[in-house]
Amino acid sequence: MNSPLDTLLASHILIVDDTPANVDILKVILSREGYNVSMAPNGEVALNVIPRSMPDLILMDVMMPGLNGFEVCEKLKVDEATKEIPVIFVTAKSETEDIVKAFDVGGVDYITKPYQYREILSRIKTHLQNQTLLKNNLLLVEQLLKVNVELDKASRTDSLTGLSNRRDANEKIGQEMVRSARNEKSFSLVLGDIDHFKKINDTYGHEAGDFVLTKVSRLMVDAVRRQDLVSRWGGEEFLIVLPETELAGGAILAENIRQKIESEKFVYNEQTMNVKMSFGVCSSGSELSMDELIKKADDNLYRAKEAGRNKVVS
Q: pTM (2 decimals)?
């Protein structure tokens, strides 16, 4: 594994200067220190090679034919790909206006000629260290954002079935209530429960029960539209949110799922299980709160159970 010092010394430095003598001296000094050095004789060439070579640091002369160093730096700083490359101006111009201009266009340092080689090496090392810290911090931020996205997804996902969990379903219902009121279009809820699920667990074991839950969730997802949300509401209960769907449409979907599950073969460890589901369906109304809407679906599910199970009540 490379040490931080090894990484710095392997850095690529681009010298942009139209005076060969200046370039040759700097190249010798930097190469002796272990840096990877390349050269560009003017601003136009520099702008052509920088996006391809992506140097870690640029030593830029100011007075050059064509584009001067300030103009080159300005162009680099407006390009998303090159804006973070540190630019050190190395020039004979020592007027205050030029120094201020250098920092205004995005330079990180300003060294006037003639310069001491130990000084320029020290400044290069410092800015490369700063650049390494910046890159590491940006990488850390990116990793943290990714972890936060994954944690948020995990907090909204049922670990067994991969469906949305109760928390995510509640948020979806809240969103649909707002959208329904704005668009004056109903949405429906379908609350389903696997009949005699405890008996399945007791007879065939909890692994068989998990198999049933997973397969039921897959069958339900296959039966709905892309805009619908299937969630594991808890235990053996599943809740489906159906945007822009009237009560009759919700009841038809629930019946289709009921028939599909009833006719499906559930075979685990060469044992066939008889799996059926009951469903309660309700539709949104302006007079109902979210809790009242969920309770209505739950009451209809209870009525389906009371009527003998394996039924849809809306």
A: 0.64
